[in-house]
Write a structure and sequence with these properties.
- The chain is of the alpha/beta class.
- The protein has two domains: about 260 residues, Aldehyde Dehydrogenase, Chain A, domain 1; about 180 residues, Aldehyde Dehydrogenase, Chain A, domain 2 (3-Layer(aba) Sandwich).
- Helix content is about 40%, strand content about 20%.
- The chain has a seven-stranded mixed sheet with strand order 15-16-17-14-13-18-19, sandwiched between helices. The chain has a six-stranded mixed sheet with strand order 10-9-8-11-12-20, with helices on both faces. Strands 1-5-4 form a three-stranded mixed sheet.
- Helix 9 links the parallel strand 11 and strand 12.
- The model has no long low-confidence stretch (mean pLDDT about 95).
Amino acid sequence: MEYRNWIDGEWVEPSGERTLPNVNPADTRDVLGTLRLSSREDVRRAVAGAKRAFPAWRRTPAPERARVVARAQKILEAQADELARLLTREEGKVLAEARGEVAKTINVLEFMAGEGYRMGGITRPSVLPSNFCYTVRQPLGVVGLITPWNFPVCIPAWKIAPALIAGNTIVFKPSELTPATAEVVVRAFIEAGCPAGVLQLVHGDAEAGDEIVRHPEIPAISFTGSNEVGRSIYETAAGMLKKVQCEMGGKNPIVVLEDADLELAAAGAAKGAFGSTGQRCTATSRAIVHEAVADRFVELVAEHARRIVPGNGLQEGVTMGPSVDREQFDKVLSYIEIGKQEGATLVLGGSRAEGEGLEHGYFPAPTIFDHVRPGMRIAREEIFGPVLSVIRVRDLDEAIEIANDVEYGLTSSLYTRDPNRWFRFVDEIETGITHLNSPTPGGESQMPFGGVKATGVGAREMGDTAIDFFTELKAVYVDYTGAKRESNVY
């Protein structure tokens, strides 16, 4: 398969010189297709078309714009199993996880479609007689959406839907590692009735992304990806006075206190650390555990990890897929070596996963380090792989201090039976999302998603807050006296 851009209602070949194979990371002999990267000129064409389409789309009533999203949801729902299998083959996550991502996508679109009727403003009483004060939400124009490879169906959907409903037109650049799933998402919106020019798909790498960020006709950028890229985007776009939304990394802690249900906590830690091969910004990368129960907790997590079966996610019985590509695989293995050199105790894993059929894929072994010190790199830097660092503490005070002592602040989890400590943890933990007695990953479509500190910049995604980033508020004053006033209030 050759992947094409969708510009002004036509599938067109990108004009860049470089090509990339789209390879199954579980078996690199399985090539899904070839991607030609887009040039800056391709991006400029897409922006010009989106700008032409904007006036008509913004005049379309919001409920009608939302019906496009509702129809796209039904289209994706009808092809859910086929899409999940493609997702597993292209990105690597096991089929159960791929089905979960597609189901989450459907939920997001289902909830967001209702925003076409809920996208309102406020009214306020005026200090003047016969004066009516209210606010309205208005679209920004052409928005740039840049999405990652780890959730290549759900993240594009949760950005595209609110942007469309708000009345914007879109230039969408997915990861160059997942062009096939991106095309399925775009085709669903096309089939749902999205007019030509309203949603433009441009495949490409950093060059295309940079053109989107720097283009003067794009006033807003929504990005999900690494901190390194996100910071660069923020610096460039802020210098041009653009609106910016970045959802970036995480170093998410699970805190396990001495009164916790250890079986429950260990199962949650294993799911959070090793699910999706650790390739989630919400993955559990640190377990901060009370010293009185740490030995037993580590034993239980290790038991879960030993039962993990790595392999091709389409095969029966496989429970963990590969790293997405060679670069990410090498990064995970390099951090494992760093952990060994720093003096952490290697409990399990620590190398490439071995087994029949794994030699053609990028499979790191599920890895657990114990007796990790808070200052170690494996305790502070995002690895994005199936690596769990266990840090032992004396009490809740120390646990919260260590949990907060990183640059990230996406999600967190606390396991305890004490409700008083639940609420103290919620008050003091520096994350945008927190869970009590459940794992760090996960978020529902009707709730806001995002983090604090180096994790997030700009308004939250998902939920009814998703519209906030893609609109501007206008305050309106209606004087219905029909006469000149003696004075105004400023």
